[in-house]
Write a structure and sequence with these properties.
224 residues; 9 helices; mainly alpha
């Protein structure tokens, strides 16, 4: 599958980030599959860059949980693990609940408008059935909520967890049957923030994540 890779050049980004985005996209799109080895020399020759940005990009992918480093064997694309997903979402659920409750107390009128606009952009992406746009607009929607909590450390931790969950989220939204559910959940989260109803928001956030666990677990079992 390595021969299918093409470096996506961007003069505004450091070379390691360009390599990272190229490999990340290849993993998420399935061009690089779980278990595929990422050999620095082979990637260096294919992408036309030195081994240094390759090595740095692989470390960045490891932090996202997309790559694992095996002693004496090197790097390979990580397999999707049901346990890994559940571990991350268990932590995320607690932090998401903290974020929406803090946002209830601290959200501004301008941020409510921003959340509404993010919700509407998500709905547009859903209508187009554009998987990448849906994933990106979903991230953007939650990002506005996190920032409304006015806790930079919480935002940082949630951003890290979000990166680890990106591949699982992408699997979730490949199923068009979940689109209507996601739109309803986003609408409910927005209405809960408008009403500042903490109990309702915690309930919806729990439901939101449990639906994702259930759907992605099924995908992982089927692939296994």
């Amino acid at each position: 599958m390595i021969e299918e890779l093409t470096l996506r050049m961007d003069s505004l980004l450091p070379l390691r980030d360009v390599v990272f985005m190229t490999l990340r996209e290849a993993i998420l799109e399935g061009k690089l599959k779980p278990g595929d080895r990422l050999m620095e020399i082979q990637l260096s020759n294919k992408l036309g860059v030195s081994r240094t940005p390759i090595r740095e990009a692989i470390r960045m992918l490891e932090k996202e949980g997309l790559v694992i480093i095996i002693p004496r064997k090197g790097a390979q694309v990580a397999k999707m693990s049901e346990k890994d997903m559940e571990d991350v979402l268990e932590i995320r659920e607690v932090l998401d609940e903290l974020a929406v409750q803090a946002a209830c107390d601290r959200i501004t009128d301008e941020e409510l408008v921003a959340i509404k606009e993010a919700k509407e952009r998500f709905e547009i992406a859903v209508k187009k059935a554009d998987t990448n746009a849906i994933a990106e607009s979903d991230v953007a929607f939650h990002e506005v909520i996190y920032k409304a909590a006015k806790n930079p450390k919480l935002v940082y931790i949630l951003s890290n967890l979000r990166e680890q969950m990106y591949r699982y989220r992408l699997e979730y939204i490949k199923d068009k049957r979940v689109y209507e559910i996601l739109v309803e959940e986003h609408n409910a989260l927005y209405e809960g923030l408008v009403k500042k109803d903490k109990a309702f928001l915690v309930k919806i956030m729990h439901q939101h994540l449990q639906n994702q666990i259930s759907a992605v677990s099924k995908v992982i079992r089927e692939n296994a």
